[in-house]
Amino acid sequence: MSNNKVSRRQFLSYTLTGVGGFMAAGMLMPMVRFAVDPVLQKSAGGDFVLTDKKVADITEVPERVDFTFEQVDAWYKSDVTNTAWVYKEGDEIIALSPVCKHLGCTVNWEGDPAHKNQFFCPCHAGRYEKTGKNVPKTPPLGPLDQYEVRVNDGLLEIGKAIPNTLV
Amino acid sequence: MLNKIYDWVDERLDITPIWRDIADHEVPEHVNPAHHFSAFVYCFGGLTFFVTVIQILSGMFLTMYYVPDIENAWESVYYLQNEVAFGEIVRGMHHWGASLVIVMMFLHTLRVFFTGSYKKPRELNWMVGVLIFAVMLGLGFTGYLLPWDMKALFATKVGIEIAASVPLLGGAIKTLLAGDEHIIGAQTLTRFFAIHVFFLPAALFALLAAHFIMIRRQGISGPL
Fold this sequence. Notes:
The structure holds two protein chains of two kinds.
Chain A: H1 8-35, H2 37-40, E1 49-54, E2 63-73, E3 76-89, E4 92-96, E5 108-109, E6 119-121, E7 126-128, E8 146-152, E9 155-162
Antiparallel strand pairs in A: 1-9, 2-3, 3-4, 5-6, 6-7, 8-9
Chain B: H1 2-13, H2 16-23, H3 44-62, H4 73-82, H5 87-114, H6 123-145, H7 150-164, H8 170-178, H9 186-218
Helix pairs in contact in B: 3-5, 4-5, 5-6, 6-7, 6-9, 7-8
Keywords (chain A): 2Fe-2S, Disulfide bond, Electron transport, Iron, Iron-sulfur, Membrane, Metal-binding, Oxidoreductase, Transmembrane, Transmembrane helix, Transport
Family (chain A): Belongs to the Rieske iron-sulfur protein family.
Domain Rieske (chain A): 89-158
């Protein structure tokens, strides 16, 4: 037994650790996978929502359009109303998300009388130009998100939020 | 690598004696199944603890999805079982483990009884064990209501009626358990949830600690 490099004690310790580790993994793996499931689940989203806004009525001045859709939140279904700021740029319809890129408050068009032709966030006086581009030296670090839009029988349809394509 | 980390900590905190106190103890020949196969009956206490650990872990993970509310409880259980990855497994572990704990604990009690291990000087440990038995049955009873399906509701109605049959105090016990004089509903569910995940586990940890400290202090009882 001179070429025996693994002692009995070591062999026993390795086997027990291995088998024990295998059993512990078999126990913990389903639980961990169960816990991280929300991270790995594909988000369905992206369906277009029909609004009651006639495309013909959209002007070059951003206007608030509310749209309601059924949100499925795990076991809880509810109607959620979101808002978009909608205007025409030439023939193109632009719909901007009202969620401020600073800390997620809601911005208003010309919400501050001192700054015409700009979106204004009341929380920390963040400002954006009409394209959604954030005004330098105000808190937001990026432009407002944009919604995908579509026209259905003369009415506006709003899709999912995408990064701003105008800036 | 692991050895180096261990040595680094040990050099500073001298943890080896603590570790030795916990893990290094005598296992007499008459309780070692390698010597006498029939000694496997001495494993039931450890198996009860092992299943209890699984119950604690799987229960912690289940509360990530479960809500103790009469509108949503059943829906959330349905969701976690059918929509979440491995939900059936994790809920299954908790469901079957609950029965297994009772079985193992009962076998452990029988072993202690028939080997006479409850006799002096171990009477206190037997008493703590009986309290653990009661806490485990309480965990089973309160956990049974939480899925909020028909079986759970009617089992709890019956259980609370049994509690209400106690002379004199019955009515008060019923109200205390159900949260309402007449209704088994919203308040019953939140109460049972709180008892199931906070109060009884806290009592269980304290009792288990006492149980284990006593067995280490007194050692395993001698051979028959």
